[in-house]
Write a structure and sequence with these properties.
Length: about 200
């Protein structure tokens, strides 16, 4: 007789995502996964391929949520979209990270946290996910800047690729800073300063 599941897969993955986000991959043990998600050791191994498999699925869930919410301002817009994206990083109480009355943005960005942690872990599978995410994020910034160029907001010789890399690096740095300080609003001054620079890109 087949074992009956004692958990809902999507709910369990979402709980695991928040747990990994708060504590990091290394600091979450199998017992904690069992306790918080109701996924037992057997199911963890057979249905997810172990702890790393669950973590990868949690990352994919985070990325889907990010595409639907945090990255939305970057879709089909120019410099204003870029400014709104960074504004939401430090002000929006309804951003994707708001859940169960807790602003989990104080944990930083799960993807940034994972990039840093994976320096020691050395997981190629995790690296594939994080690299794909940040390549996609850079392309989103490039797309915004190309729109800005077509609309005449920035000059024809503007270095779109270099600017997109700058924006990506700045976004990652803000997330690390927020995680370190534990206060989203602490990054307000830096974001305001950087967005004034972005506005100065206009011709």
């Amino acid at each position: 007789m087949a074992r009956q599941k004692s958990y809902d897969r999507k709910e369990a993955v979402d709980v695991a995502m928040k747990t990994f986000w708060q504590k990091g991959y290394t600091n979450v043990g199998v017992r904690q996964i069992e306790r918080e998600t109701s996924i037992n050791r057997f199911a963890l191994q057979t249905e997810f391929g172990g702890k790393e498999g669950l973590f990868l699925e949690a990352l994919e869930s985070y990325l889907k949520l990010s595409q639907e919410t945090a990255l939305l301002p970057l879709k089909g817009r120019g410099l204003d979209g870029i400014c709104e994206f960074f504004e939401l990083l430090v002000t929006s109480p309804e951003s994707m990270e708001k859940s169960d009355g807790e602003d989990t943005r104080i944990y930083g960005c799960l993807m940034v946290n994972t990039v840093i942690e994976n320096v020691d872990l050395g997981s190629k599978e995790i690296q594939k996910v994080t690299t794909a995410h940040y390549n996609g994020m850079q392309r989103s910034f490039e797309h915004c800047l190309e729109i800005a160029k077509r609309q005449g907001e920035i000059g024809p010789q503007f270095n779109v690729v270099a600017a997109a890399r700058y924006l990506l690096t700045f976004a990652m740095g803000i997330e690390v800073y927020v995680r370190m300080i534990g206060n989203v609003s602490a990054a307000r001054e830096q974001v305001d300063f950087a967005m004034e620079e972005v506005k100065n890109w206009r011709v």
